[in-house]
Design brief:
112 residues, alpha+beta, two-stranded antiparallel sheet, 3 helices, globular, transferase activity, Gamma-glutamylcyclotransferase, transferase, AIG2-like_dom, GGCT-like
């Protein structure tokens, strides 16, 4: 059974996909409503090596319809979803949301 994962940041990078999933992902652009972006400093050495970025974007809920985040919904396997959980730092938690297209997907948002 397929899982769907929305990315608005480093999971869209080819290098991160290859190191996290062992393949390049296919996806469709979509928009998440009711969230805004902030940034978080990454200290995990493996994540830093894969992303080559010290600061990553992080979704913060606002519940305002005017706040949106553009990104891509990728179709992945359950094993790949668990690999994404390992990649994401402890600052993130995974939640299921509905997107502008009407599709549902997992998304990593602030754990705080």
């Amino acid at each position: 059974m397929a899982e769907y994962l929305f990315s608005y940041g480093t999971l869209q990078k080819d290098k991160v996909q290859l190191e996290t999933f062992g393949r390049l992902l296919k996806g469709e652009k979509d928009v998440l409503t009711g969230y805004t972006l902030s940034s978080v400093e990454i200290t995990d050495a493996e994540v830093l090596a894969a992303s080559e970025q010290q600061f990553h974007l992080i979704a913060i809920p606002t519940e305002a319809d005017t706040d949106t985040i553009e990104g891509v919904i990728f179709e992945i396997t359950m094993e790949e979803l668990l690999a994404a959980d390992e990649y994401e730092a402890e600052d993130y938690k995974r939640v299921k949301e509905k997107f502008k297209s009407g599709n549902e997907a997992w998304v990593y948002v602030t754990a705080g």
